[in-house]
Amino acid sequence: MLEIAGLHLRDVMIIHRLQGPLPLMYLAYAVWGVSFGIGDFRALLSVPALAAVVANLFLICGGLVLNTAVDLATDQRHAGKKDLAHAGRRVGRRGALCWAVGELSAGLLVALIATIASGYWLPVVCAAVIVLLHVLYNVEPIRLKHRGFIGAVCFAAGLPTVPSLLSYSSVHSGLETTALVTFAGLGILTVGRTAWWSVPDHQPDREAGARTAAVRYGIARATATACAIMTTGLVIAGTVMGLHYGPIKMLISLAPHLIVLGAALRPLMNGTRAVPTMRSMRRQTIPLVTLGEVLIAALPLATL
């Protein structure tokens, strides 16, 4: 098996959550801003655009591995996260933290390159904000992950909302209303989905003392609120995208997210207490969400 710095490549990939379709999801988040900000395909290969995408990938992966490092004790309690817990133990908390610090630092450095190459100051500022959000989300004593829906807001801001602003501002001199409202709507959608994704972790999070939305408000209330938030995000983003790119293209790009919303709503509509499992999330929800994020990235490019 391939090794990196004495560690198995598989373990390194697992602690970065680089399994299944997830790398495509992260890449979509990294390029959203560039896709909405450029005016022609040649700009995709410009130094500012490429630097912004690379910076986003470092910042996204660094934040995820930071979360792995601080959540080792909780993940060991969850049957659906055995691979993550085992990989985390083999890498070690200190090793995972070194990966996180190195990647977040690299993200800041590459964002500085994007700022210098573009002449716009916002990319490096966004990168610093993303690092701060990852710290606030994961690190005690603040650790917003354990503060209900506030944690979901922090996570969504750090991935994908501010990364979208980082890459958008690297290729566009101004912040246009269409892009800003679209990113806000998609960020709100991510807030709701993040809160809903805490439902399968309800019991192990409770045992570990983690006050996620599902633990703090209960499964039914957390699910209902998460669905309302997802609906709000879809309406905001869908309205702006429909007006700007046309309703058919908008519906195609958001269709996977509408299916995910329907899956989240189903137990509420049926009056059941069914709880989604981590296995179903991995096999069904995550591929759909990934497809949706890729389609969103492709939407503005299809109009060039």
Q: How is this structure best described in words?
A:
Strand 1 (3-4) and strand 2 form a beta hairpin. Helix 9 (177-197) runs antiparallel to helix 12 (219-245). The mean pLDDT is 91. This protein is mostly helical. A two-stranded antiparallel sheet has the order 1-2. The protein has helices spanning 9-15, 22-37, 47-70, 72-75, 82-91, 93-118, 122-138, 149-171, 177-197, 202-208, 213-217, 219-245, 247-270, 278-301, and strands at 3-4, 7-8. Helices cover 77% and strands 1% of the residues. It is built from 14 helices and 2 strands, in the order E-E-H-H-H-H-H-H-H-H-H-H-H-H-H-H.
Fold blueprint:
Blueprint: E1 3-4, E2 7-8, H1 9-15, H2 22-37, H3 47-70, H4 72-75, H5 82-91, H6 93-118, H7 122-138, H8 149-171, H9 177-197, H10 202-208, H11 213-217, H12 219-245, H13 247-270, H14 278-301
List keywords for this structure.
14 helices, 304 residues, two-stranded antiparallel sheet, mainly alpha
What coarse outline follows from CA principal-axis ratios? globular
Residue runs with pLDDT of under 50 for 5 or more positions: none
Proportion of residues in β-strands: under 5%
Report the biggest beta sheet as strand number plus sense, adding barrel if it closes. 2 strands, antiparallel
